[in-house]
Structure prediction request, 117 residues.
Amino acid sequence: QVQLVESGGGLVQPGGSLRLSCAASRTINSNYFMGWYRQAPGKQRDLVALITSGGSTDYADSVKGRFTISRDNAKNTVYLQMNSLKPEDTAVYYCNARHPRLGNEYWGQGTQVTVSS
Prediction:
């Protein structure tokens, strides 16, 4: 069974930092593109950051310079380091795995991030 399990969410003050982790089951190997998406109440789910199997990264304009995505293929884990957090970063953050050729796609259950004073 394919699983993506996120952790690391929580409540943080503006300007603070959080690191999200997404542990993937062995079925999801290093060939998968891994991404973090977020969905605020009443809004669509949007891409935050993406890392390819080769390690190339891409970010939403709103998080460039503040968030960093990385992956540890030995641990089958992807991370999202979030710095200088703003209230508008408040959302449920979802981990995503997508195989670029096979089209397989999987989602985690989501982790809440709340930025508030």
Q: What stands out?
A: The chain has a mean pLDDT of 95. The first strand starts at residue 4 and ends at 7. The chain is about 0% helix and 50% strand. Residues 6 and 101 are 24 Å apart (CA to CA).
